[in-house]
Amino acid sequence: MNVIGACDTEDKTSILREKGAFCTINYSKKEVVKSVMKETDNQGVKIVFDAVGGDTFEDCLQSISPEGCIVVLGFSSRKIPQILTSQLLPKSCALIGVSLTHYQKMVNETYRSTVQEVIDMYLDEFIDPHVAEQFKLKDVSNYFNCIESIAFKIKLLIF
């Protein structure tokens, strides 16, 4: 499996390459659809994970291969895309929304086992998440100052 990662800065594309991405696309400088089609010999990708939403969702829809799947994880752009179901038909593709909050609240055992699997993968060094910054619990208020900065977009784990 080859991973094509798309993000909005060169720094982030460097991180994606360090983490093993086959190809990276800085969508503030390159056209995503053209780049994906070039890298896939005009086949498109089998699966897309979209956590951005907004205009990037349209790129996802155009980059998906026939019978592919788009997994919507969130809307960091704060723009929720609108889609007509007829847009899925030409490629017979699927659209799935996944919410960790749903699993945490409604299917708690699935959530707990999934979180444990991720922790185990980390402990087994199967995954290597990027750590942009670390804070001690007593300094967690500094984290909130950082996330207010547009350049600093990460998730927070407190150990």
From TrEMBL:
The record places domain Alcohol dehydrogenase-like C-terminal at: 2-108
InterPro entries in the record:
ADH-like_C, NAD(P)-bd_dom_sf, Zn-ADH-like_protein
Gene Ontology molecular function terms on file: oxidoreductase activity
Pfam short name (any one) = ADH_zinc_N
GO-annotated cellular components: mitochondrion
Check the record and name the PANTHER family matching this protein.
QUINONE OXIDOREDUCTASE-LIKE PROTEIN 2, SHORT-CHAIN DEHYDROGENASE/REDUCTASE
Query: What protein does this entry describe?
Result: Alcohol dehydrogenase-like C-terminal domain-containing protein
Q: Which organism is it from?
A: Araneus ventricosus
Q: What is the lineage of its organism?
A: Eukaryota, Metazoa, Ecdysozoa, Arthropoda, Chelicerata
